[in-house]
Design goal:
heterodimer, A: 452 residues, alpha+beta, Rossmann fold, OB fold (Dihydrolipoamide Acetyltransferase, E2P), six-stranded mixed beta sheet, five-stranded antiparallel beta sheet, 20 strands, elongated, B: mainly alpha, MetI-like fold, two-stranded antiparallel ribbon, 2 strands, globular
Chain lengths: 452, 296
């Protein structure tokens, strides 16, 4: 995917294809869309993600022209769409139910929009054939929609909506009716087709996995508002609110009071209170290389071993000096090590050491915050791990998902957290089981501190 | 065995209530009129043994059917019946389709009520309702009084005892048979299909022609047959609302049977009528079958 380089939203000169300008939509007393402004760029694969009733479908229907905004403006390619009826828009939609015409064959369904444009027979034939090829439906051209499978129907719907080469394709929960395996295949197919045709796609879905897979940007919506718009990885790794963190994927939310920690993360290198071994190791090499015998050793060598082994070589054989990097890395794995300074400490339970999040914004100090932790970033072990953020608890449930297992751990204060581990061992050899007392740990940077 | 018994029930029903009566009618149509009771002969007398049965069959002939072709009253009545049935079917469709459409597009909570209103007239006797139309359509009837009162007309319109009254009566009576199948076809239609059509460049009107009409086609066909088939043999409406000029085969049948007491000719008329109806009935069945297969 070109996702990494493709980011027109960061380019101030890029002209958006779609502009929502302070759009509000009300149905009677109910506000479906609440004063939203959002740009969508050409060739984007933009996902509107949210629970049902969050307004995502209304956003899409306003783009298609089936609903008109109560307030505000929608511009497509710079043109105000207020007076443009749906049949005059260069926008096509793939419906959730596919809405294939049951009385027409696959071929006629795909040709439907082209015929309305009054194109010539040859043009229509060529375009329909092209669409059939693109969606690999050549064999089914003469079948009626009820004579093909769900996955094929979904491809017919896609071919039909792409046939008129719209500037913008809207997809309303397009894969909802497919089983998981087919859905995954189809997601990649969709991305492929989107790249091939260069069409801008706006997809509405409540399936966060789907949104994350296909989209270049995801807009998470709730109650008529867009909460966060970002690349899928940013949405997952850096949610801007508890709502987004909770909605996208699994998450452990630990509430507590934030307290600023001493020191700036940037200044960490200078006053490093390094452990003593480190000092000797870094200071010693100038005079003596390697470990030196103490008095008893000296005596043993001189009195007993000398006649047998000969003279001790004061410069023992040794490995070439290691790179400076491993030397620096080595102390990290040493046992007692204070956490890097900076960030926030989270007082989450009475009488428990605070949790440390060095990526926490010190501006939140003194507030009640939530630490959001992904289960896969939590490690679980039976012995006390070498980590500052370690919580003790009891395994109350294990969800075996095949590739991974999720352990539900109840902490001493009743809080339940989930930790996920890859099942690299066969099930019989797993050493953690129900009712085990375990430690759940995570690094100082794996959580995200969120307000509220 | 159980399966056989289950199938036997509807077959027995058909044999007892359709096939045997039809065989009797067919037998009468092949008999000769007689001043007797019953007014035809020969009579089948099984007690006479094999000989009697043979003489009975030898006495049967197609004389009555030949007679039907000799008098142009009969084929004119058949043609006129077909014509009236065809025209009133079209009229019923024109009136019924918008009603069915409006019902299918109404708010879901209203639909049961509207359906009930369509069926409601069946709760009253058919005959009484036709009499009520006589009261409405006559020269001193409610319609003329209303029109005179509003000043639209200065002289009462003559509607009763014309073909117009027959059409009004038929459309009124058979409207539910048209509305219900069309409604059920339209109600099943996914509304997103219309949105899809508009999305692909149709205007609202062309979406109606290209999507709504084809998808309600089966309902339209079913409704048309349900009106057309019984109207051909309709007797009450033309005799109560129609005039002397209204020629329908049902009326002819009635007159042969009760006025002329010519049971064999009346039976022949009925047999021909049935043969005529077999064609649309088969077409109707085939349509239903096709629809079931399409949905299957």
């Amino acid at each position: 995917m070109s996702q990494t380089d493709f980011a027109p939203w960061n380019d101030p000169n890029a002209k958006p294809l779609i502009q929502f300008k302070n759009v509000t939509k009300r149905f009677g007393d109910f506000t479906a869309i609440d004063n939203q402004t959002q740009d969508i760029y050409e060739q984007e694969f933009f996902a509107l993600l949210g629970p049902s009733g969050c307004g995502k479908t209304t956003m899409m229907r306003m783009l298609a022209g089936f609903e008109a905004p109560t307030e505000g403006q929608i511009l497509i390619a710079g043109q105000d769409m207020a007076q443009v009826p749906p049949n005059k828009r260069a926008v096509n939609m793939m419906f959730q139910s596919y809405a294939l015409f049951p009385h027409l064959s696959v071929w006629e369904n795909i040709a439907f929009g082209l015929k309305r444009e009054g194109k010539g027979r040859d043009v229509i034939d060529a375009r329909v054939d092209e669409m059939l090829r693109l969606t690999r439906l050549e064999k089914f051209a003469q079948r009626k929609p009820h004579q093909i499978s769900g996955g094929q129907r979904q491809r017919v719907a896609l071919a039909r909506s792409l046939a008129k080469a719209p500037k913008l394709l809207l997809l309303d929960e397009p894969l909802g009716a497919l089983d998981k395996k087919l859905r995954q295949d189809t997601q990649f197919e969709l991305m492929d087709i989107q790249e091939k045709t260069g069409t801008t796609f706006v997809i509405v879905t409540h399936d966060q996995e789907e949104a994350m897979t296909v989209a270049s940007r995801v807009a998470v919506m709730d109650e008529g508002k867009i909460i966060q718009v970002a690349r899928p990885d940013q949405i997952y790794e850096a949610p801007n609110s508890v709502y987004v963190a909770d909605f996208i994927g699994e998450v452990n939310l630990i509430k507590g009071r934030a307290e600023a920690r001493a020191g700036e993360p940037e200044a960490a290198a200078a006053p490093e209170p390094a452990p003593p071994q480190e000092v000797t190791e870094t200071a010693a090499p100038a005079t003596v290389d390697g470990p030196q015998p103490n008095e008893i050793g000296e005596w043993l060598q001189n009195k007993l071993l000398f006649p047998i082994l000969g003279k001790r070589d004061p410069q023992p054989k040794r490995l070439p000096p290691p790179d400076p990097k491993p030397v620096e890395a080595a102390p990290v794995s040493e046992v007692p090590k204070p956490a890097p300074p900076g960030g926030l400490a989270l007082h989450w339970a009475e009488g428990r050491p605070p949790l440390i999040a060095i990526n926490g914004d010190p501006a939140m100090a003194g507030e009640t915050v939530t630490l959001a932790l992904r289960p896969e970033k939590m490690a679980i072990s039976k012995t006390k791990p070498d980590a500052h953020n370690a919580l003790q608890g009891k395994v109350i449930d294990i969800a075996y998902l095949g590739n991974v297992s999720t352990y539900h751990v109840e902490l001493e204060n009743g809080l339940k957290v989930r930790a996920q581990m890859a099942n690299t061992r066969r099930i019989a050899r797993r050493d953690i089981t129900w009712e085990d007392s375990v430690w759940v740990s995570f690094s100082e940077t794996s959580g995200v501190v969120l307000r509220g | 065995m159980r399966r056989f018994l289950l199938i036997a029930v509807p077959y027995l029903w058909l044999v007892a209530l359709f096939l045997i009566p039809f065989a009797i009618v067919l037998k009468i149509s092949l008999s000769d009129v007689a001043l007797a009771r019953p007014p035809y002969m020969p009579q089948l007398d099984i007690s006479g043994g094999w000989e009697a049965i043979r003489s009975f069959f030898s006495a049967l002939d197609f004389e009555n059917f030949v007679f039907l072709t000799s008098d142009d009253l009969y084929w004119k009545a058949y043609l006129s019946s077909l014509q009236i049935a065809a025209i009133s079917t079209v009229l019923t469709l024109i009136v019924g389709y918008p009603i069915a459409y409006a019902m299918a597009r109404s708010a879901p909570e209203w639909r049961p009520t509207l359906l009930m209103l369509v069926i409601l007239p069946f709760w009253t006797s058919f005959l009484i309702r036709v009499y009520a139309w006589m009261g409405i359509l006559s020269n001193e009837g409610l319609l003329n009084q209303f029109l005179l009162w509003t000043g639209i007309i200065s002289e009462p319109l003559t509607i009763l005892n014309t073909n117009a009254a027959v059409y009004i009566g038929i459309v009124y009576t058979y409207l539910p048979f048209m509305i219900l199948p069309i409604y059920s076809a339209l109600e099943r239609m996914d509304e997103s299909l219309l949105e899809a059509a508009v999305d692909l460049g149709c205007s609202r009107l062309s979406a109606f022609w290209l999507v709504t009409i084809p998808l309600s086609k089966n309902g339209i066909i079913a409704g048309c047959f349900l009106v057309f088939i019984p109207v051909i043999g309709e007797f009450v409406i033309p005799s109560l609302l129609g005039g002397s000029g209204t020629l329908m085969i049902g009326k002819v049948l009635w007159e042969e049977f009760f006025s002329n007491r010519d049971w064999p000719v009346a039976s022949a008329v009925a047999v021909i009528l049935l043969l005529i109806l077999v064609i649309p009935i088969i077409l109707f069945q085939r349509n239903e079958q096709k629809q079931r297969e399409a949905e299957g």
